């Protein structure tokens, strides 16, 4: 009797176990690839977040139209799981964790910007989930993250490019004034320029940072004015740069070369400033006039340009392009690995060497996209034109 | 010449700061409510002015009174419907309530107006007096700031409503016994606070790019200015604002802009220790 009972117990336990294993098997043989993305759809980075989402949606539509991504011998459709983290860094981290543990996504993309990339990349690293960033710079990639990859090229490439082009356009440029926002990316762009300019033999006559939330730049501008620089170089986000440009004009600060990182890459910058934006130069990671061809879902830069323009009425900037490129790299790495295994996909990402509408993508050891010719732009006649590299240049540089 | 220019920059900025702080100071002094909504009120005023100018072509100076009145109505309603229910509770309760209301207003603005910076492009040029450059739109902003704070000062001193507000501030119970409808006075005071914020927002839209993520910055400034100048008095806000503007301006010049804002907070801390009433505050409202 006792024996019989225990045998029955054993049998039901075995049955339960079998059922469980069957379920787990079903869960493992996923019928879709899930990619998780915390996005800044509200808050300070809402406009960048919206661009990121638009690019993702366009890619998603195209990839699922061809049946999805080839994983080994099967083709799996892609599902994008997104949340609004409201431009709140802490929330971005929590949502990255939720995406991994709760939504069980296979891979992640990082939100816009270095600060929030750093936070989500740390979470992804802890769980061993490959994460592709759309806008991240050196201070994020020097943390030893193994699972982080970024589609932008290193910021130092932007600096070298500008020094080259501007010194050619104005060989007698001697004095540079640098004003940078005390924040991850703008700060590194300011300090890299200070180093680069000194190395190139320029004298740095003003080099200061301003804190996040600065409402007035009159003092910095007055100080720069006394230093009479040939080149004014300011870093920050659109609202900061609009204010600086406005106050420069108010207080009569002028220089033959005025550079703002990364304001002029954005349409909003030109719209808000109007004529004050004229002749301001910048460097960007991507510009639509640099035509590339690739074997991704968009195929050509022109096709991507047309699609973004049709969908939003806006010309694409680097945020759109870099975001779409992030998903393309994930797709290519999954195809190369032939599995959804995270470690295998990570390895495939490290070995990736592809051509896309966005340009070539090949990751360095630190996960940044390997350096290439980055476009230097200038606002002329209310529109950004490309000054360099020579192959895609559309105008000559104008000095103030 | 630089020093003179820095001083002028500081005073012009300080007048704008005073404009930010005066409504906040009034509400805090009279109602003992730390109004977390104040920054969002300013931005709302700025956006309304921008939209009136951009879509309807209304001159910002003409839009200012209309925007200010709209904000007054909003402030009055919020106080009457919500804050009055808890206005006699400890300050943390009202702080939490206005904090919650602020989150709603802030996020509504971010969703409907987006965080894209917007600016009324007057670009009126600059005047150059003996080598000191004065941007005309900022001078106009300064003029409006002085005018508005002056007007509020006169209203507080000379009108029945103003005297009633002062009476409620001095002694709520005695004022009620004298026949003053205290809840109504509270709502009016909060409304005036919002009105001043809306007017400040209209002034700011002419000078600064307005974006929703500035709300916290405005609130922080208002807080520091009130502590420096002294709570609950119009002259206090004016003195505090100009003091902060000039200090930030010189600090930016002497020790670099990176630490200029810190110095404002250091001054606030020092004042809290040595003179908690602020530079010209009234004793009992520290």
UniProtKB/TrEMBL annotation, chain A:
Pfam families: Peripla_BP_6. It comes from the Bacteria. One of its GO terms (biological process) is amino acid transport. Residues 1-29 form the signal peptide. Keywords: Amino-acid transport, Signal, Transport. Residues 33-382 form the Leucine-binding protein domain. Coiled coil: none annotated. Belongs to the leucine-binding protein family. This is ABC transporter substrate-binding protein. The lineage of its organism: Bacteria, Pseudomonadati, Pseudomonadota, Alphaproteobacteria, Rhodospirillales.
From TrEMBL, chain B:
InterPro entries: ABC_transp_permease, BCAA_transport_permease. It is found in: Cell membrane. Its main location: membrane. GO terms for biological process: amino acid transport. Pfam families: BPD_transp_2 (PF02653). Keywords: Amino-acid transport, Cell membrane, Membrane, Transmembrane, Transmembrane helix, Transport. Belongs to the binding-protein-dependent transport system permease family. LivHM subfamily. This is ABC transporter permease. It comes from Oceanibaculum pacificum. The lineage of its organism: Bacteria, Pseudomonadati, Pseudomonadota, Alphaproteobacteria, Rhodospirillales.
């Amino acid at each position: 009797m006792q024996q019989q009972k225990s045998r029955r117990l054993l049998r039901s336990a075995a049955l339960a176990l079998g059922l469980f294993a069957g379920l787990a098997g079903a869960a493992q043989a996923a019928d879709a690839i899930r990619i998780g993305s915390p996005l800044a759809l509200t808050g300070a980075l809402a406009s960048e977040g919206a661009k990121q989402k638009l690019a993702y949606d366009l890619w998603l539509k195209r990839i699922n139209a061809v049946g999805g991504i080839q994983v080994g011998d099967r083709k799996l459709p892609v599902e994008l799981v997104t949340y609004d983290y409201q431009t709140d860094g802490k929330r971005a981290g929590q949502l990255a964790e939720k995406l991994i543990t709760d939504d069980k996504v296979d891979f992640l993309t990082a939100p816009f910007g270095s600060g929030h990339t750093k936070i989500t990349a740390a979470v992804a690293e802890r769980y061993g989930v490959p994460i592709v960033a759309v806008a991240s710079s050196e201070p994020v990639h020097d943390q030893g993250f193994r699972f982080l990859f970024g589609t932008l090229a290193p910021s130092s490439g932007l600096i070298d490019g500008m020094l080259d082009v501007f010194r050619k356009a104005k060989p007698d440029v001697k004095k540079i004034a640098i004003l940078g926002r005390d924040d991850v990316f703008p700060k590194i762009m300011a300090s890299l320029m200070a180093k680069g300019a000194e190395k190139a033999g320029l004298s740095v006559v003003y080099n200061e940072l301003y804190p996040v939330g600065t409402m007035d730049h009159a003092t910095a501008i007055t100080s720069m004015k006394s230093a009479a620089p040939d080149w004014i170089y300011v870093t920050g986000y659109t609202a900061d740069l609009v204010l600086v440009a406005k106050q420069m004009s108010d207080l009569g600060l002028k220089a033959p070369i005025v550079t703002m990182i990364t304001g002029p890459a954005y349409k909003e910058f030109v719209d808000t400033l109007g004529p004050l934006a004229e002749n301001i130069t910048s460097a960007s990671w991507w510009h639509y006039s640099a035509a590339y061809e690739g074997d991704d879902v968009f195929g050509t830069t022109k096709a991507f340009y047309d699609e973004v323009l049709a969908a939003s009425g806006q010309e694409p900037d680097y945020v759109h392009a870099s975001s779409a490129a992030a998903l393309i790299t994930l797709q290519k790495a999954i195809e190369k690995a032939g599995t959804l295994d995270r470690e295998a996909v990570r390895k495939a990402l490290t070995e990736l060497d592809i051509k896309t509408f966005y340009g070539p993508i090949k990751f360095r050891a630190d996960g940044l996209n390997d350096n290439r010719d980055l476009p230097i732009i200038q606002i002329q006649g209310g529109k950004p034109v490309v000054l360099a590299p020579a192959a895609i240049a559309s105008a000559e540089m104008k000095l103030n | 010449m630089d020093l003179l220019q820095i001083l002028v920059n500081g005073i012009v900025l300080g007048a704008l700061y005073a404009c930010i702080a005066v409504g906040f100071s009034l509400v805090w002094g009279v109602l003992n409510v730390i109004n977390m909504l104040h920054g969002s009120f300013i931005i709302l005023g700025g956006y309304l002015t921008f939209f009136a100018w951009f879509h309807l072509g209304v001159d910002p100076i003409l839009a200012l009174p209309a925007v200010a009145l709209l904000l007054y109505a909003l402030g009055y309603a919020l106080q009457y419907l919500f804050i009055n229910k808890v206005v006699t509770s400890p300050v943390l309760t009202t702080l939490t309530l206005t904090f919650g209301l602020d989150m709603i207003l802030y996020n509504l603005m971010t969703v409907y107006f987006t965080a894209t910076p917007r600016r009324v492009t007057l670009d009126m040029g600059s005047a150059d007096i003996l080598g000191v450059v004065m941007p005309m739109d900022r001078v106009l902003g300064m003029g409006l700031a002085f005018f508005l704070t002056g007007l509020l000062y006169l209203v507080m001193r000379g009108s029945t409503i103003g005297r009633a507000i002062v009476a409620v501030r001095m002694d709520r119970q005695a004022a009620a016994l004298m026949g003053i409808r205290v809840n109504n006075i509270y709502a009016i005071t909060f409304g005036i606070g919002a009105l001043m914020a809306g007017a400040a927002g209209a002034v700011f839209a002419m000078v600064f790019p307005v974006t929703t993520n500035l709300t916290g910055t405005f609130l922080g400034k208002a807080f520091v200015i009130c502590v420096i100048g002294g709570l609950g008095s119009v002259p206090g806000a004016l003195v505090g604002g100009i003091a902060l503007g000039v200090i930030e301006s010189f600090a930016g010049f002497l020790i670099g802009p990176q630490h200029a804002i810190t110095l404002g907070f250091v001054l606030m801390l020092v004042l809290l220790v040595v003179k908690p009433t602020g530079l010209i505050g009234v004793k009992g409202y520290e």
